[in-house]
Each structure stands twice: as C-alpha cells, then as structure tokens.
Amino acid sequence: MTYLVLKTLHILSVTLFFGAGLGSVFVKLHADRTGDAHAIAFAHRTVVLADWLFTIPSGVLLPLTGFWMVWLVGYDWQHGWIAMGLGLYVIAGLSWLPAWRLQFLMRDAAVESARAGTPLPAAYTTWTRVWALLGIPSFLATVTAVFVMVAKGFVTG
User: Fold this and answer.
1) Burial class (CB in 10 A: 0-12, 13-18, 19+), 7
2) Which of 14, 43, 72, 120 has the fewest other C-beta atoms within 10 Å?
3) What is the chain's mean pLDDT, rounded?
4) How many CA atoms within 13 Å lie on the side-chain side of 34?
C-alpha cells in the first residue's frame, strides 16, 4: 500500500511540475504580447506564485517519492532507467534555476514599469529570450524523464 501511495504522489508531482511550467509559459508569453506593463506585472506575479505553490513543492516531492519507491522495491540505484531519470531531473532543475532567477528580475522590472508608467527596460527582452532558451532543455528533459519512467526497462534494459 505504501508503494501505491508513493507512486500516486510521484505521478501527481510530475503532473504539477510539468503543468505549472506550461501554465507559466502560457501566461507570461500571452501577457508579453499585450505590451501592457500592468498585465505583464500581473502575469509575472502569478508565475512566481505558481512556482512557490506548485513547481517547488512538486520538484521536492519528485525525488523524495522516487528514492523512497526505489528503496522499498529494492532496485539497484544505478539501474539504467533510474540513473537516466535522475540525470534528466538534474538537467531540468539546472535549466530551471537560472530561469527562476530571471522571473524575479522580469517581475520586478514589470512592476516598476507599471508603477512608474514607463516602458519595460530594454533588458526585459533579453531576459525573456534567455528564459525561453533555458526552458527548452528543462521541458525536453522533463518530457523525456516521464517517458523513461513510464517505459522503464524497455528504454535502458
């Protein structure tokens, strides 16, 4: 029973992790298209809040539930699909962390622009491009990790 509870939490965590990421991209990019600093500031406050409420907790739960399941079942920690899944998780996290920092810079710039009634700073466009580029390996690593977890031994033997 413990294993099934952990597996359910693990699947719910990856769903939140992935879904919050996609939702953040959707909200941010649509707000950016308006060019309205108020809408962009609101979107960035929402994205940062979603990370605190969904991405970070699910990102912590994923390895905890995964490690616990591996320990319960007695799998070898270096088994191919486990090692691959962990590696992909690390890639996703290492890509997400600098993007997360950029979200704070973009949020603060948008809030200040909205407050002052001024255009967004020129750096905002650069931050958005870097943020989007960092999202590519994070997204691909997450999707691939989900596939590896589902396929297990079919992928790496």
Assistant:
1) middle
2) 72
3) 93
4) 14
Its domain, for residue 121, covers 2-156
Q: How many Cβ atoms from other residues are within 10 Å of residue 149's Cβ?
A: 20
What tokens appear for 36 in the block? 């309205």
Count the domains in the chain.
Answer: 1
Judged on CB neighbours under 10 Å (0-12, 13-18, 19+), 62 is buried
Q: Count CA atoms closer than 13 A to 63's CA, side-chain side.
A: 13
The tens digit of pLDDT for each residue in 25-71 reads 999 999 999 999 999 999 999 999 999 999 999 999 999 999 999 99
pTM: 0.86
Residue type, 45: R
* Listed residue (35, 18, 1) closest to 128, CA to CA: 35
How does 65-91 read in b/e, with b if 16+ C-beta sit within 10 Å?
Answer: bbebbbeeeeeeeeeebbebbbebbeb
Rounded Cα distance between 1 and 143, Å, is 27
In whole angstroms, what is the distance from residue 1 CA to residue 114 CA? 52
- Candidates 115, 94, 96; CA nearest to 45 is 115
Q: How far apart are CA 114 and CA 93, in angstroms?
A: 31
